[in-house]
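TICKET #2291
ISSUE: user wants both folds in one file
ATTACHMENT 1:
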Amino acid sequence: MLKKKIFTAAALLCFAFLSCSVTSEQNKSITKEYIQTQKSLAEFLEKDDLSQEARFAVVNKIATNMLSVKDYNSLTLFLTEWVENHPQDPYNAYWLLMTAYAYLETDSKPVAEYYFERIINNYDDLMINENSIHFLCLQHLIQISTVPANRISYFTKLISKFPGQISLTESYYRLALEYEKEGEWTLALKTYNQFLEQDDAFSIQIAGIPNAYLNARQLIDFNNSPKDWTFESLDALVSAVKTAISNYNYRALDKYKSKVNFFAMSWRQDETDSNAQQSFSMHDYMNGQRIRYSPELDSSSTPNEAYLRTWGWSTYINVWYLYFRKVNFPADPDIHGRWEWAGIYYGEKL
C-alpha cells in the first residue's frame, strides 16, 4: 500500500507540473481540462476496491491521454513506475510495450530495443485486441536491431512460434543471411535449403534482395558440387585457358568452365535472365574457326574479376570476353579465394 501511495503522489505531482515539462508545441494540446482529467484518473486509480479490469482501463486511459498529446517523457515515467510498483499486474507486458513504442516515437531505438527484449525474456505472452505482444515485439526487434546474433534469435523465435503469421519463405532467407554474417555457414546453408523447399521460393519478391531464389540456388548448387574446375590463382587459370585455345583443345576448355551457374550472354543481359545460364561444349564454336586472344587481360580487370578478350568464334558474334572471378565461398576455406571461369560476354564491351 505504501508503494502505491508513493506512486500516486509522484503521478499527481507530474500532472500538477505537466505544463512545465513539455514543449511549446505540446502545450497547445495540454489544457486545464486535460490536466484535471489526468489528475482525476490518478486519484481514481488509488481506490482499493478497483477490479482488475477497471484498473487496466484507468491505467490505459491515462497512458493513451499522454500519447494523444505526445508527452512521451511523462508516459515512460508513468508506465515504468507502474510496472515497478505493481509486479503482479498481469498487463505489465502491455505497459512495457507502450513504453517501447514511446521510445520509438522519440527515435530512441536502443532503449526501445531494451524494453522489447525485456518483454520477450521476462513476461508471458499476452493477447491484446487479438494481437500477440511477443509477436509485435519480435517484429519491431527485427526492424531496429543491427546485431546479427540478436536478429538470428528473433527470426528463430518468429519461425518457431508464429509460423502462420509470417512469410516463412522470406524469414528463412533473412535468417540465412544473418547466419552468413556470423560465419555460421553450416546453419546458413541449411536455412537456405529450407528457403528453397518453400512452394513460393521461386516467385517471392523480398524487399531489398533482388533475385533471392537465384542467389540461394547458386550457393546451394555450388556447395553440393565437386568444385574441381577451380584454380589456385588467376595466372594459372588464364594460362591454362590460353593454352587450350592455342591447341584448339575444346575438351580442356569444357573442363575449365564452371559446372555451376556458368553463363553466356551479351553485356546488356543480366546473369539472372533465363537464357543467360547456358550449358554447351566449346567444340561447337571452335571447330573450323581461327581463335585468337589478347596477350594481356582487359584493363577493366580487378583483384576479384578479370576479362580476357578473344575473337574468331563465329561470323555472327566474333568477339567473346571470357570472364574469370575469384570464388567467394567462406563455407569452404580450401575453395574460398581460388579462381573460376564463370562465364562469357558476347560482343565488344559497352
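ATTACHMENT 2:
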Amino acid sequence: MSETFVSTGTIAAIATAVVPQQGSVGIVRVSGPEAMAIARTLFHAPGKQLWESHQILYGYVRHPQTQQIVDEALLLIMRSPRSYTREDVVEFHCHGGIIPVQQVLQLCIEHGARLAAPGEFTLRAFLNGRLDLTQAESVADLVRAGSLAASQAALAGLQGKLKAPIHRLRATALDILAEIEARIDFEEDLPPLDEAAVKTQMEELLAEVTKILATAEQGELLRTGLKVAIVGRPNVGKSSLLNAWSQSDRAIVTDLPGTTRDVVESQLVVGGIPVQVLDTAGIRETADVVEKIGVERSRLAAQAADLVLLTIDAQAGWVAGDLEIYQQVRHRPVILVINKTDLAPTASIQYPESITQIVRTAAAYNRGIDDLETAILDAVQTGNLSASNLDIAINQRQSAALTRAKVALQQVRSTIGDRLPLDFWTIDLRSAIQALGEITGEEVTESVLDRIFSRFCIGK
C-alpha cells in the first residue's frame, strides 16, 4: 500500500461525531492485533464479567500508571474474524463530548495503537475480504446520504446489489476467454469454437453493462443532489417562494424591492433527490454598493446552478427586465415560475417560445408548490427517483470503468464480425475483464484506493 494507508499494526480513532458539550455517547474504535491487549490495559470491568467476543462489559477506563478514572464506559468486544475489519476490534463507548473520547483515544495511542487514516477501518475490511470495493464505496455513500432515497441506494450497494451482477459479468467474460484460449493452445484436441454461442454471450454482456451504465446519472443526482437557483427581478416573490417551498422563514419577505442582499440557501428533498435551493438577490441595475454585490453573486449562482427557476410577477407579466435575465441564464435548464397568480389569476403572458416548462404559483398562499416539484423532476428526467427501491446507482468511478468495459466488448464483437484470428478476440476481452475487476476491486491500483478511501471520514 501507499504511505497514505499503512495496513498493518493496530489503529484507533473516534468513530462518532464529536460536538462540544453535546451528544450522549462517543465511541473510540480500536482494530488490530493489539486491540484486546490495549482494552485489558485500560478497561476495568468489576465483578466476573466475561471477556468474550460480542459481549458488552461495563466498567471504567483508567490510566494504567496513575489508576485515575478517565470515564465510566462500556466496552464492546468483537474478535476476529467476526468484526467489521475481520481483525480483533474493541470499542470504548464513552460519555459524549470532546474531553472523554479524546482522553481515551490518547491512552489507546500511548499503549500501542496509532491514529487511523481516513477510511482505514473500511480499507481493512476491503483488504481482508469482508467487503468488495463497491460495498466499501457504499459505506461512504451511506454516511453522506442526504435523502432517504440516497440512503436506500447506498444500503442496496452495501448488500451487494452491484457486486453480484459485476461478478457475474466478469465470470462470464472469463469463461469466454478460457474457451477461446483453449482453442488457441489445443486447437487439434478440441472441437471448433461455437462462434454463434460466443456472439450471443457477448450481446448479453453488452446489454447488461448498458443497463447498469444507465443508472450513472441517477446515482450522481442521489449523491450530490441538485442545485436550483431562484432568480428574477426584485419583488417578484422569490423569497416568498423559497419560504413556501421550504415551509420556513429562511428569507426576509417585504414589499420593498432589493430586500434580499445575498444568496440564501435551503436544503430540501424532492422525489428522493437532495436539492440545494438558492434564493438570490433581485437582478437589476443599481447604484447601491451592497445590493450591487448581491446582484453579482446572484448571477454567479445562476450560472453555476443545475436548474434555474426564473420567477416573474403575474401582474407585471413578461417585461424587458425578465428578458434580460433570461438571456443570462438560458444556457441552463430553465423553468418559468409565474408567481402572484392570486393577484392576476387570468393573466395572459407572452414569453419566449424556447421556454417549455411553466409553473404558476401563489407563494403567499403556498399554491403551486407540488406542481413546481413535479416540473423539477420532469426537467431532470428523473421522476423515477422518487421510488425508494433503487437497487443500483453507480458512481463516476464505476461508470468510467463500465464504459471502458463496454467499449472493449463492442470491439470484441467487431473483431468477431471481421473474422479476425482468435488471438485478436482475447486482447479486448482481457481489457473488459480488467475494467470489470476494477469496479469490485479484484484488479485495482494503490492510487485508486488512495483516491477512494481518502474521501472517508476518520473512524469509518
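RESOLUTION: both attachments delivered.
EXTRA DETAIL ON ATTACHMENT 2: The chain is about 45% helix and 15% strand.
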